[in-house]
Design goal:
With 208 residues, the chain is of the alpha/beta class. The protein is 55% helix and 11% strand. The chain has a 5-stranded parallel sheet with strand order 2-1-3-4-5, sandwiched between helices. Strand 4, helix 8 and strand 5 form a beta-alpha-beta unit. The longest helix is centred in the first third of the chain and has 20 residues. It is globular. The structure holds cobalamin. Belongs to the methylamine corrinoid protein family. InterPro entries: Cbl-bd_cap (IPR003759), Cobalamin-bd (IPR006158), Cobalamin-bd_sf (IPR036724), Met_Synthase/Corrinoid (IPR050554), Meth_synthase_dom (IPR036594). GO terms for molecular function: cobalamin binding; metal ion binding; methionine synthase activity. Keywords: Cobalt, Metal-binding.
């Protein structure tokens, strides 16, 4: 973890963030380690927002800085062949956060999964349609807002009511989603980050 990068991200010091990301990349620091520092900085941004030290403009700025940093980081590994099957992912309806979802999509793709990214603010029927069409072994639902936990719960229940739960494992993730929230939503498991998501999905599909 780069303390300098965490602090610069938290302080929204764009120049330092970009410089440090370039420096870490030049030292061959793994992309996901750089992302982990940026993510920790984003947690602090969120805390400051909650304490009203930051406002919506700072949240927007944080997303811009994060995206610029991601562009410098570039690819997150070789794009493997899609040998591990289909992974459908989307951000639940009423939620437009997509930075974490996009990281999970990229890392899953580079780990040999065919990723169908439905986007953000996705209604239940779109998830169901996608499961019927692509027959994924694993579905990922991203949720960054506690006010949307019930939406995820409703969506997972509807997937079950449609008779699609037996063949599909459901992973949930996003900043505030802990194990208790995952259980409340009816998910199979909670993915804390992209690496964990890959590990769980490989286990679900039976590959090492
Ligand atoms: C950037 C940001 C925004 C940006 C989002 C831009 C974008 N394109 O995504 C903007 C400005 C749009 C925004 C808006 C809002 N936000 Co906001 N936002 C954030 C912030 C600071 C960072 C989120 C982020 O990108 N983190 C970095 C990524 C890499 O981390 P991540 O998303 O957690 O993803 C990782 C893991 O969780 C996991 N993961 C993620 N998704 C998935 C999915 C699956 C399937 C799996 C397995 C794993 C997984 O893997 C990822 C990689 O490691 C968070 C603070 C926080 N602590 O998260 C608040 C935060 C989520 N936002 C918050 C709020 C309140 C809002 C607004 C309601 C503000 C407002 N008043 O309008 C709106 C809501 C808009 C909406 N309807 O969705 C609150 C939510 C509080 C709560 N209790 O629900 C937070 C927690 C801030 C806070 N502490 O108050 N936000």
């Amino acid at each position: 973890m780069s303390k300098k990068l965490v602090e610069a991200m938290a302080d929204l010091d764009e120049d330092v963030v970009l410089e440090e990301v370039k420096a870490l990349k030049a030292q061959a620091t793994p992309a996901l380690d750089i992302i982990a520092s940026l993510q920790e900085g984003m947690e602090i941004v969120g805390d400051r927002f909650e304490k009203k030290e930051y406002f919506l403009s700072e949240l927007i700025m944080s997303a811009e800085v994060f995206n610029e940093a991601s562009e410098i980081i570039g690819g997150m590994g070789e794009t493997g062949k899609s040998k591990n099957g289909v992974f459908v992912i989307g951000t639940i309806y009423d939620d437009i956060h997509d930075i974490g979802k996009n990281i999970v999509s990229t890392v899953m793709r580079s780990s040999g999964f065919e990723v169908i990214d439905l986007g953000v603010d996705i209604p239940t029927d779109k998830f169901i349609e996608a499961i019927k069409q692509y027959k994924p072994k694993v579905v990922g639902i991203s949720c960054l807002l506690t006010t949307c936990f019930d939406n995820v719960k409703e969506c997972i229940k509807a997937i079950g009511d449609a008779g699609l739960r037996e063949s599909t494992k459901i992973l949930v993730g996003g900043g505030p989603v802990n194990d208790a929230a995952g259980e409340y939503m009816g998910a199979d498991i909670v993915g804390k980050n992209a690496q964990q998501t890959v590990k769980y999905c490989k286990k679900f599909v039976g590959v090492k």
